[in-house]
Amino acid sequence: MANVDTDPEDAVTAACSVLESVCRSILVELDIPLPNQKDIQGLYKAVRDPLGLNPAKTGVADDIADDVRTILGGLNSTVQGIGALRTHGGDAHGKERGRPRAIDRRIARLAIHAASAAAVFLIETWQFKYPSRTLRAAVSPTSA
Question: What average pLDDT does the structure give for the chain?
Answer without folding.
Answer: 85
